[in-house]
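Final report, results section. Input specification for complex C-07:
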Amino acid sequence: MSSARLGSALESLTIPVGALIGAMLLFGLFMLMLGQNPLEVYGLIYQGGFSSAFSWQNTLSRAAPLILTALCVALPAQAGLMIIGSEGALVLGGLTAAVIGHAMTGMPPISVKIAMALGGLLSGGLWIAAAGALRQYRGINETISSLLLTYIAIALFNHMVEGPLRDPASLNKPSTAPIGDASMLGNFPGLDVHWGLGFGIIFCIAMYILVKRTTWGFGLRIVGGNARAARLAGLPVGPLVLAACFLGGAASGLAGMVEVAAVHGNANASLMAGYGYAGILVAFIARQNPLAIIPVAILLGGISASGGMLQRRLDLPDATVLVLQGMAFLLVLASETLYGRIKLFKPREVAA
Amino acid sequence: MTELGWWGVPLGVLGGALRVSTPFLFVSLGECITEKSGRINLGLEGILVMGAMAGYAVSYITGNPWFGVLAAGIAGFFLGLLHGLICNLPKVNDIAVGIGLMLFGTGFAFFLGKPYVQPKAPNLPSLSFGAWADAPQVQAALQVSPLFLIGIALALFLAWAFRNTRWGLVVRMVGDSSDAARAMGYNVNVVRTLATAAGGFLAGIGGSFLSLYYPGSWSEGLSSGQGLMAVALVIFARWNPVHCFYAALLFGGAGSLGPALQSVGITSGYYLYNAAPYVLTLAIMIATCSTRRTLAGAPGELSIVR
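Structure output:
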């Protein structure tokens, strides 16, 4: 690797990590102001997220949907779009998967699972592709439209789950009819973590190769860098943008399918656990790099897994984790200003 | 009680428009100031929730809801200031910072607001304009908040001030051409930061309306995206404060379609009717945006319309 590439790789590793450490320090200061011992808080976050087999299991099951929802931000970002509608694609993917899973009761489990996954991929993908199409063909800001689409998706979801698709047997918590134990996704071999983690990692690696190592991905990144130049070079800008949005939405829809088929067993309001919003943060910390998403999602999954621990031991509100995430988000964004400014990472100038 | 039957629906929508539109109005006026200066603050949703929490807490502690409104404005001011200061750093994207502020503001408000979910804080008074009518439903529909009237006055004032005052012209110049503003000796970043902070102040007040008037209590599910819809609403209103008022009424009416239908016994599509404002926003954006031209009246420096 040339020294210039090494420098820029080091730069894009050091700056976000530094911003995260800064956020932890700021959060510790905030805890100190509230009369808590910051070291104890850090200790509990470690204990709740990363110390035992049980906490790792909790962390990884939370990381699985985060990996997939972060892809929903990172893939359109390659084409220069800032999509924040992963939550909507997730609930629709989950709903579609639950409907398919119930309708195919009694069929061979493997075909049910494949159909549920396809349903999740397709519904989530089309939903986000709609935001991309509105951007491409009507000039509508995709950030706003994707969030509006999320609100609409949630309304649709609530309507279906509490109305036409409600299982009469679900009394206290409106849910769709169960998909049945035979169709549930099992655990990752050798781990107490469901298959969603495997889907996420495979999806990330595939997208990394697609974006960074293929001509198609190169074209996509040209569109993201300068859409006008891409058009002049004869690249099919519209289809590229739509495909990136579709793939991102498909990842998020798959996250919904995984939550239904591996965790809940049906579609209900627990699907809206905020994975879509936390995924935005994951994608930004990972600098929209599909491979970097995996460790970042595990880190944030661990932090959110420790929320319960903070609540029980220190009597802090459950939103404590959200405060930490918010601080991390703002610092990571502010740290964008440091790129290209730190001498250490600059390639040495060669004497002519 | 007079039976109104189906007339209850338009009446409910009208009453709802008068009642629900106030947060839209304040947030969109705040966003209007910010966008006129050439920046976009998507974090107003977070500021709105923070304002709702701060307003409720201060009203509960002091016993005076107007102190709560002021506190909500101040909380919003500081969050807006934060957005402005971060965006002053070179290479930082204002839309992304807005998303960050949205998550930070709501998380921070949930964190600090936990102790105030249960207690009952004194609410803002309401003014009756329906005393002439016999039907109690009409009287109820014509109850308006003093904040609504302040909002109308503010919209008219801002429309006047953007045209006729020195700072109004400076904000617009900074938003239309930062080069021109720099050549005139104005500090673009300072103007934009102050405009964002002022926008945050108004959005905070819009939040206090939610917790202190309607629905009139603090909970984590208080806001349903009003702060975000206001951003789209400003685009629809073409950056004109008076049009922001009309648009806020329209959105308020759309938002109260669900409850109005429910009051006459139609409950089946409740969630779908609740999605009406989002669908309306999207439909309006589809109808008015275009890839071929920038929108009339758009500030030239604004990233969202380019």
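The interface with chain B takes residues 82, 84, 134, 136-141, 143-145, 147-149, 151-152, 155-156, 158-159, 162-163, 277, 280-281, 284, 317-323, 325-327, 329-330, 332-334, 336-337, 339 of chain A (CB under 8 Å). The two ends of chain A are 22 Å apart (CA to CA). This concludes the modelling results for the funded period.
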